[in-house]
Design a protein that fits this description.
About 35% of the residues lie in helices and about 25% in strands. It has 8 helices and 10 strands. The strands form 2 sheets. An 8-stranded mixed β-sheet has the order 1-2-4-3-5-6-9-10, sandwiched between helices. The chain has a two-stranded antiparallel ribbon with strand order 7-8.
Protein backbone atom coordinates (compact mmCIF):
# COMPACT_ATOMS: atom_id res chain seq x y z
CA UNK A 1 0.00 0.00 0.00
CA UNK A 2 1.32 3.43 -0.97
CA UNK A 3 1.82 5.57 2.11
CA UNK A 4 0.43 9.13 2.19
CA UNK A 5 2.90 11.93 2.69
CA UNK A 6 3.62 12.78 6.30
CA UNK A 7 2.51 16.00 7.93
CA UNK A 8 4.83 17.76 10.36
CA UNK A 9 4.39 19.23 13.81
CA UNK A 10 6.95 21.43 15.53
CA UNK A 11 7.41 20.36 19.17
CA UNK A 12 9.53 21.85 21.93
CA UNK A 13 10.98 25.21 22.84
CA UNK A 14 12.65 27.30 20.12
CA UNK A 15 16.04 26.23 21.44
CA UNK A 16 15.09 22.55 21.32
CA UNK A 17 12.48 22.36 18.58
CA UNK A 18 11.90 19.05 16.79
CA UNK A 19 9.99 18.48 13.52
CA UNK A 20 7.78 15.45 14.18
CA UNK A 21 6.42 13.45 11.23
CA UNK A 22 2.76 12.41 11.55
CA UNK A 23 0.31 10.43 9.45
CA UNK A 24 -3.30 11.00 10.47
CA UNK A 25 -6.33 9.27 8.99
CA UNK A 26 -9.61 11.03 9.85
CA UNK A 27 -12.52 8.80 10.80
CA UNK A 28 -14.96 7.70 13.43
CA UNK A 29 -14.22 7.26 17.10
CA UNK A 30 -12.76 5.54 18.89
CA UNK A 31 -9.64 6.41 16.98
CA UNK A 32 -6.41 4.41 17.09
CA UNK A 33 -3.11 5.95 18.18
CA UNK A 34 0.09 4.06 17.37
CA UNK A 35 3.09 4.42 19.70
CA UNK A 36 6.14 2.65 18.32
CA UNK A 37 9.12 1.05 19.96
CA UNK A 38 12.76 2.03 20.38
CA UNK A 39 14.36 2.63 16.95
CA UNK A 40 11.11 1.69 15.22
CA UNK A 41 9.15 3.91 12.85
CA UNK A 42 5.55 4.35 11.72
CA UNK A 43 6.09 2.46 8.46
CA UNK A 44 6.56 -0.85 10.27
CA UNK A 45 4.34 -3.86 9.60
CA UNK A 46 2.10 -3.50 12.66
CA UNK A 47 1.59 0.26 12.30
CA UNK A 48 0.66 -0.01 8.62
CA UNK A 49 -1.68 -2.96 9.31
CA UNK A 50 -3.39 -0.93 12.00
CA UNK A 51 -4.03 2.01 9.69
CA UNK A 52 -5.21 -0.30 6.89
CA UNK A 53 -7.76 -1.83 9.29
CA UNK A 54 -8.84 1.64 10.42
CA UNK A 55 -9.36 2.77 6.83
CA UNK A 56 -11.40 -0.33 6.00
CA UNK A 57 -13.62 0.07 9.08
CA UNK A 58 -13.96 3.85 9.05
CA UNK A 59 -12.00 4.58 12.24
CA UNK A 60 -9.55 7.40 12.75
CA UNK A 61 -5.87 6.47 13.09
CA UNK A 62 -2.80 8.47 14.05
CA UNK A 63 0.85 7.44 14.00
CA UNK A 64 4.07 9.40 14.30
CA UNK A 65 7.83 9.01 14.53
CA UNK A 66 9.62 10.08 17.68
CA UNK A 67 12.44 12.59 17.22
CA UNK A 68 15.54 10.90 15.84
CA UNK A 69 13.37 8.15 14.34
CA UNK A 70 12.05 7.59 10.82
CA UNK A 71 10.98 10.76 9.05
CA UNK A 72 11.13 13.03 12.10
CA UNK A 73 13.86 15.51 12.79
CA UNK A 74 15.86 15.85 15.97
CA UNK A 75 18.92 14.15 17.39
CA UNK A 76 18.42 10.50 18.34
CA UNK A 77 21.22 10.81 20.90
CA UNK A 78 19.13 13.34 22.83
CA UNK A 79 16.20 10.96 23.00
CA UNK A 80 14.67 10.07 26.38
CA UNK A 81 11.32 8.73 27.54
CA UNK A 82 10.34 12.21 28.76
CA UNK A 83 11.29 13.78 25.42
CA UNK A 84 9.39 11.20 23.35
CA UNK A 85 6.43 11.45 25.74
CA UNK A 86 6.32 15.22 25.21
CA UNK A 87 6.20 14.66 21.45
CA UNK A 88 3.52 11.96 21.68
CA UNK A 89 1.25 14.15 23.80
CA UNK A 90 1.77 17.09 21.44
CA UNK A 91 0.76 14.92 18.46
CA UNK A 92 -2.23 13.57 20.41
CA UNK A 93 -3.41 17.08 21.27
CA UNK A 94 -2.94 18.37 17.72
CA UNK A 95 -4.44 15.48 15.76
CA UNK A 96 -6.67 13.56 18.21
CA UNK A 97 -8.53 16.32 20.03
CA UNK A 98 -11.97 14.94 19.15
CA UNK A 99 -13.51 11.81 20.64
CA UNK A 100 -11.98 8.88 22.51
CA UNK A 101 -9.01 6.79 21.43
CA UNK A 102 -7.31 3.44 21.89
CA UNK A 103 -3.57 3.79 22.51
CA UNK A 104 -1.65 0.94 20.87
CA UNK A 105 1.86 0.85 22.34
CA UNK A 106 4.53 -1.53 21.08
CA UNK A 107 7.53 -2.38 23.28
CA UNK A 108 8.84 1.01 24.50
CA UNK A 109 5.62 2.47 23.13
CA UNK A 110 3.83 0.63 25.92
CA UNK A 111 5.85 2.67 28.42
CA UNK A 112 5.00 5.88 26.57
CA UNK A 113 1.30 4.90 26.56
CA UNK A 114 1.27 4.35 30.32
CA UNK A 115 2.99 7.68 30.91
CA UNK A 116 0.51 9.37 28.56
CA UNK A 117 -2.51 8.21 30.58
CA UNK A 118 -0.80 9.43 33.75
CA UNK A 119 -0.18 12.88 32.26
CA UNK A 120 -3.68 13.12 30.79
CA UNK A 121 -5.11 12.20 34.20
CA UNK A 122 -3.20 15.13 35.76
CA UNK A 123 -4.97 17.38 33.23
CA UNK A 124 -8.36 15.85 34.03
CA UNK A 125 -8.58 14.30 30.55
CA UNK A 126 -8.69 10.57 31.32
CA UNK A 127 -11.97 10.35 29.39
CA UNK A 128 -10.05 10.80 26.13
CA UNK A 129 -8.68 7.24 26.37
CA UNK A 130 -11.05 4.33 25.73
CA UNK A 131 -8.50 1.51 26.13
CA UNK A 132 -4.84 0.52 26.00
CA UNK A 133 -3.47 -2.26 23.83
CA UNK A 134 0.13 -3.05 24.78
CA UNK A 135 2.27 -5.26 22.54
CA UNK A 136 5.29 -6.84 24.27
CA UNK A 137 5.22 -3.83 26.62
CA UNK A 138 8.55 -2.64 27.97
CA UNK A 139 7.79 -0.10 30.72
CA UNK A 140 10.81 0.76 32.86
CA UNK A 141 13.02 -1.37 30.57
CA UNK A 142 16.11 0.74 31.26
CA UNK A 143 15.86 0.13 35.01
CA UNK A 144 14.24 -3.32 35.11
CA UNK A 145 15.81 -5.06 32.10
CA UNK A 146 18.98 -3.20 31.13
CA UNK A 147 20.74 -1.92 34.22
CA UNK A 148 20.93 -5.26 36.10
CA UNK A 149 22.81 -6.76 33.15
CA UNK A 150 25.24 -3.94 32.40
CA UNK A 151 28.84 -5.09 32.28
CA UNK A 152 31.77 -3.10 33.61
CA UNK A 153 32.66 -2.28 30.00
CA UNK A 154 29.17 -0.91 29.37
CA UNK A 155 29.30 1.23 32.50
CA UNK A 156 32.70 2.55 31.48
CA UNK A 157 31.35 3.49 28.04
CA UNK A 158 28.41 5.30 29.62
CA UNK A 159 30.64 7.32 31.94
CA UNK A 160 33.37 8.14 29.42
CA UNK A 161 31.37 8.57 26.20
CA UNK A 162 27.86 9.20 27.46
CA UNK A 163 26.50 6.20 25.58
CA UNK A 164 27.02 2.48 25.11
CA UNK A 165 26.69 0.19 22.10
CA UNK A 166 25.08 -3.23 21.99
CA UNK A 167 24.57 -5.75 19.19
CA UNK A 168 21.15 -5.54 17.51
CA UNK A 169 19.25 -8.58 16.27
CA UNK A 170 17.18 -6.36 13.98
CA UNK A 171 19.75 -4.11 12.29
CA UNK A 172 23.31 -4.11 11.01
CA UNK A 173 23.91 -1.05 13.16
CA UNK A 174 24.36 -1.56 16.91
CA UNK A 175 21.77 -0.42 19.42
CA UNK A 176 22.86 2.78 21.14
CA UNK A 177 21.72 3.58 24.66
CA UNK A 178 22.71 6.91 26.19
CA UNK A 179 23.37 7.78 29.80
CA UNK A 180 20.64 10.42 29.45
CA UNK A 181 18.14 7.72 28.43
CA UNK A 182 19.02 5.56 31.43
CA UNK A 183 18.97 8.47 33.87
CA UNK A 184 15.64 9.74 32.56
CA UNK A 185 14.29 6.19 32.48
CA UNK A 186 14.79 5.88 36.23
CA UNK A 187 12.94 9.16 36.76
CA UNK A 188 10.12 8.05 34.42
CA UNK A 189 9.43 4.67 36.00
CA UNK A 190 5.80 3.57 36.27
CA UNK A 191 6.17 0.18 37.97
CA UNK A 192 6.67 1.71 41.40
CA UNK A 193 3.07 1.60 42.61
CA UNK A 194 -0.49 1.20 41.32
CA UNK A 195 -0.92 2.41 37.73
CA UNK A 196 -4.40 3.84 37.35
CA UNK A 197 -5.20 3.94 33.63
CA UNK A 198 -8.93 4.50 34.06
CA UNK A 199 -9.65 2.20 31.12
CA UNK A 200 -9.39 -1.46 30.02
CA UNK A 201 -5.90 -2.76 29.24
CA UNK A 202 -5.12 -5.71 26.98
CA UNK A 203 -1.58 -7.09 26.63
CA UNK A 204 -0.27 -9.26 23.78
CA UNK A 205 3.00 -10.96 24.74
CA UNK A 206 5.18 -13.58 23.07
CA UNK A 207 6.55 -16.27 25.35
CA UNK A 208 9.70 -16.60 23.22
CA UNK A 209 10.48 -12.90 23.35
CA UNK A 210 14.28 -12.59 23.83
CA UNK A 211 14.15 -8.84 24.48
CA UNK A 212 11.24 -8.40 26.90
CA UNK A 213 10.60 -11.66 28.77
CA UNK A 214 6.95 -12.52 29.26
CA UNK A 215 7.56 -12.43 33.00
CA UNK A 216 8.00 -8.67 32.65
CA UNK A 217 4.48 -8.32 31.22
CA UNK A 218 3.13 -10.47 34.04
CA UNK A 219 4.90 -8.22 36.55
CA UNK A 220 3.30 -5.19 34.92
CA UNK A 221 -0.16 -6.69 35.48
CA UNK A 222 0.54 -6.64 39.23
CA UNK A 223 0.70 -2.84 39.04
CA UNK A 224 -2.68 -2.60 37.28
CA UNK A 225 -4.81 -3.94 40.15
CA UNK A 226 -7.81 -1.66 39.80
CA UNK A 227 -8.24 -1.90 36.05
CA UNK A 228 -9.91 -4.33 33.69
CA UNK A 229 -6.78 -6.14 32.53
CA UNK A 230 -6.43 -9.11 30.20
CA UNK A 231 -3.41 -10.74 28.63
CA UNK A 232 -2.92 -13.01 25.65
CA UNK A 233 0.28 -15.07 25.72
CA UNK A 234 1.51 -16.26 22.34
CA UNK A 235 3.42 -19.44 23.07
CA UNK A 236 5.74 -19.24 20.04
CA UNK A 237 5.66 -15.44 19.72
CA UNK A 238 8.83 -13.34 19.56
CA UNK A 239 9.32 -9.66 20.35
CA UNK A 240 8.23 -8.26 17.02
CA UNK A 241 4.87 -10.06 16.83
CA UNK A 242 4.80 -9.26 13.11
CA UNK A 243 3.96 -12.66 11.60
CA UNK A 244 0.68 -13.01 9.71
CA UNK A 245 -0.94 -14.81 12.65
CA UNK A 246 0.33 -12.13 15.05
CA UNK A 247 -1.13 -9.34 12.91
CA UNK A 248 -4.43 -11.20 12.70
CA UNK A 249 -4.52 -11.47 16.50
CA UNK A 250 -3.65 -7.78 16.83
CA UNK A 251 -6.54 -6.77 14.59
CA UNK A 252 -9.02 -9.10 16.31
CA UNK A 253 -8.04 -7.56 19.63
CA UNK A 254 -8.42 -4.03 18.26
CA UNK A 255 -11.89 -4.94 16.98
CA UNK A 256 -12.86 -6.08 20.48
CA UNK A 257 -11.51 -2.94 22.16
CA UNK A 258 -13.20 -0.47 19.81
CA UNK A 259 -16.57 -2.29 19.83
Amino acid sequence: MTQPNAKYLEVGTPADERRIAVRHLPGNEPGLVWLGGYRSDMLGTKAVALETWAKETGHACCRHDYSGHGESGGDFMKGTISRWLEESIAVFDAFCAQGRHVLVGSSMGGWVALRMVQELAKRGESNRIKALLLLAPAPDFTYELMEPGLSDAHREQLEKRGYMEEHSEYSDDPNIFTKALLDDGEASRVMTGPIETGCPVHILQGMKDPDVPYEHAMKLVEFLPQEEVSMTLIKDGDHRLSRDQDIALLLRTVQTLVA
